[in-house]
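lol ok so funny story. i was supposed to be doing the assay writeup but got distracted and ended up predicting the structure for this chain instead. priorities right. anyway since i did it might as well share w the group, maybe its usefull for someone
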Amino acid sequence: MSFAIRRYAGADHAAVRDLFIRINAELAPAELQEAFVGYVAVSLRDEIDRLSDYYAERQGSFWVAYDGPRIAGMFGLERVGTPAAELRRMYVDRAYRKRGIARMMLERAERICRDAGTPMLTLSTSELQQAALVFYRRAGNRPAREEIGAAQSNKTVGGAIRRYHFEKELGTQAETSSSLT
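and the output, tada:
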C-alpha cells in the first residue's frame, strides 16, 4: 500500500464529500442524529462544497490522501503563514485506520506550517472521537482548553458535546534545520 498526500483538486470533490458524510454518520450518537444532520448540511453548504474558496479565504489549503484511486483521508489548514494555523477536517476512512495514514497527514500538516513560518498548530476534536484524542496527545499536542459546543456551525455540531482544543509549538523550518546540525 502506497499512500499519496497531495493538495485538493476539484476532481476530488465527490470523494471528499462522501468521506465527510460517512465519518459524521459514524460519529453521530442516536440521541444527536438530528443535530448531526443539521451540522452536515451546514458544513456542506458553508465549507465542503466550496473547499478551494473556503480555504483560500482563510489563508489555508486542503489536502487529500489517496491509496491508488481511493481516498484514504483528508485534512485542511486555516491561516498558514500566521502565528498559529488551525488543523481542520482531519479524517481517515475506516478502512485505512491503524495504518499510519493519520500520522503521515499530521506530519505533512506540521511540515506545511513550518515551511510557511507558522510556529503554532492548533486543533480541536470532540469527546465522540476518543481515538483522535489519544492520537493528538501522543503526537505532542498539549491541551489548551475545553468547551461545551452549544451553537451549531461548520466547526461544531452543538448538542452540548464537549470539545477539546490542543496546540503544538512547531518552530519554523530554519529553527528545525539548525537544531539538526
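The longest strand covers residues 70-78. Residues 3-180 form a domain with the Aminopeptidase fold (CATH 3.40.630.30).
back to the writeup now i swear
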